[in-house]
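All the exercises in this workshop are built on plain-text protein records. Sequence and backbone structure share a record, each on its own labelled line. The structure tokens are whole numbers drawn from a learned vocabulary of backbone shapes. The record below serves as our worked example for the rest of this section.
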Amino acid sequence: MSPTPLDGADHVVRYCRPRTVDSQGRVTSAAFVFRTTPNREHFLSVNWLEYFQAATRKERVRLLRELLGRKLRLSQKGRLGVLQVGCVRGLAQDSATDSVRVERHPSHDDHSHAGIHVASEQEVAAAVVLANLVEEVFPGTG
């Protein structure tokens, strides 16, 4: 199945490990750095928040935590950073590249999985901008 672009009004969430969160609980650019070893990442893994059918964002985040908790070791000091898809796409103008995409990448055990795609030469600059685009932060565990 080919990736499907997400709507600009929707939101994605990135789990940010404790070492990528500053002392005030803000997400740093380290949370958005592409891994290069052992295998190069082709996109940053995020989760599509609107996939979860719930009345409030808080409830959607709770459902996402349940899902992520089956795949990752979540930490109380970690954070879930929420970004609006349209703002992430705006990164293309901010970093002078036209190759920023936010697409669904569902798997059999995670239908909300998505990815932020950035041109490899823009990854470092993109990490800084993405950290500044985080509009809301939730604790890693709840």
